[in-house]
Amino acid sequence: MRLRTLLVLLAVVPSLAMAAQVTVTADRLLERSGHLRSDVAAGERIGLPLHALMTGMQAERTATVARWSDASASEAALHARRTATDRADAAFRRAAARGGTGSEEADRRILEVLAGLDELGAQRERADSRTGGPDGTLAYYNGLIGQMIRFYQDAFSHTEDGELSQESQVVITLFSAAEMLAQQDASIALAGPSRELPAPRFAEFVNLVGAHRYLYDRWVVPYLPPEDAERYARLIGSGAWQTKTRIENRALSDHKDLATRVRLPRDAAGWATARAAWGPHLEALNSSRIRGLLAHGDAKATALETEVAWLIAVSTGALLAVVGIVAATTRLVLRRLRLLHDRTVRVAETTLPDVVARLREGRPVDDDALPAVRGERDEVGRISDAFARVVAVSVDGHRQLAAERHGFGSFASGIASRTGNLVSRQLALTEELQDAFGGDEELLAGLMKTDQLTVGMRRQIENLLILAGGEVPDPHTEPMRVADLLREAAAEVEEFRRIDRQALDEVSVEARVISQVSHLLAELLDNATRFSPPRSRVVVRAELVADGLSVEVEDRGPRVSPERYAEMNARLHSAPPYAVLAENAHRLGLFVVGHLADQLGATVTLRRSVYGGTSAVVVVPERLLVPTAQEPVRPAASSLAPPPLPSRPRPAPDAPSDTADAAAGTTGTDRADGGAGPVPAPRAARATTDGGARPALPERVPQTHLAEQLRVPRTAADDAGARDTGSGGPDHAEASPEEVADAWADYEDGTRKVEAELRQDQP
Asked: What pTM does this model have?
């Protein structure tokens, strides 16, 4: 994408985002405005008629219980109250029939109120006939009026405006307090001329007195607007309200407790007169507050619509201003950024990669080739200087890392050389003990086991050198047949008796890579014997293919998932980071195989075997192979052959001997459990082992695969014909401290294992 396009998008995208935000905000504001207007319309259509009905029901309740307690009470007054209630009921039903409120809870509450009104006629008949008691009639009126108050709660509680929500709570509290006063009025009317109330009814009266005073003082008066607050002040300052308060106080303090009833003081007779005086003012306050709430909601809706109009106008102007600024500044920004772009691309694509490559290869770096800090003061110059500083830090880091790798590689090589000297001395001592005590079968078996463990230690030391970036020098001067190479690799493995070798083609490997190929195969064979059942066989077969020589190592190990195979193959085909080496310090075999395969140009692939185990396929390049030369038959060197051992029972029969050895006429069966030695014999002397004859023991060629750093000159007493390979080694500048440390840990694990096994063999 072009930079010009990015700059345009840099301006357009925020503009579109702002436009989208404005659209969403305007839509929300309009939605809130619509809801408010809907609530206002529902309140005017249903809320006001319902308030009139609620007031009528309260007055009818008082007249009904007064008629119940005093048969001489005016029947005309009760009839007038019922007529007013019927008119309010009809008005409410007409309003509810024209539509709901838009709120599911409020609409359900309307249905409950209508259902209660349907029972009004039956309740009146019960009151007139004095069926049951007054408590049932009072419970009906109280429940129906409570449903009406809850309608206001449901209708006004869903508004999103905090101010309107608080104001609606004040209105609902006003209605609740007025209902408590109306219930007090009904309780005093129920007392009648005797001024006696049942004890539970008097307790309810006491609770109503405290509750309505608390509601007015705590939740109503502090939130009333100025005009309504002034109206309430005039109400509570009137004589009628003072009379009400005095009667309540006298009833609480001067009542007389009877057996099951409570007699109110004589002042209670003045309640009805006072109620007639302050009742209309209280109803006017409630009506004014609900109308004020509806008017405020309508004003809020209008304000929201005005806010939307202003929001759209201002946003449109801002968007036009942004477009103008972008059009005016794009060309200037593009010109300045083009210069920065050219300089950055030149450094990133040419200069820095060349410097990093030089450091990686160990070549010196010319400081003049690096970008320099120019100290420019403009924005583009400061960015260029910052980039130059980043390049300088990166180059210094690569240079320091290369120096540390070289130093630690030399340090690791020194440690490996000293350890190798000890291993060489141990191998020499083992050879002397084999020659001296070859007639002792048990001692010779222990020496052979010690020899195998020592060879494994030597291989771990060579692993350390390989991971440090070095190579395993090859002392061979002549090519080696594949069959002999397989035998030599198998002799490096502790469980060599379980390995069956099959060289299907007659070909040889160049002398300069024999040790590397043998080491690679030894690691795979060691891995196969370790992770397969102890009595199972491990087969290694070699044959020519189109790309070179294919060597397959097949075991009967546990099942491995495809994901695990993919992970291990990736570890073989690419150099892992040091963090991976550190996490797998106890299993570095695959890393070593990967390094050797990379040095040889070979490929190693792990896959599932047809037998359920693992099959490792190594393809050695054709350029490392040579035809097998026809050599004259040479007698086996008697000095290298071990002394014969006493006859002992042979283990159970195993797989047949090597195919290639049979074709080439080599000596011995070369079976893993038969213990065939790695030293070839003349073809004419080839013979098979019988049940009564003991197979030859494998014979190690001293220091054949030992790295140059680890080999030491042998004395004349050890081997008069040995080569003095020295103890030096190549410069392993590519070794990392992590790789060397991990290989060293692997070596120490092998050493501890040998010591533990030797302790177990001691009596």
From this structure: 0.45
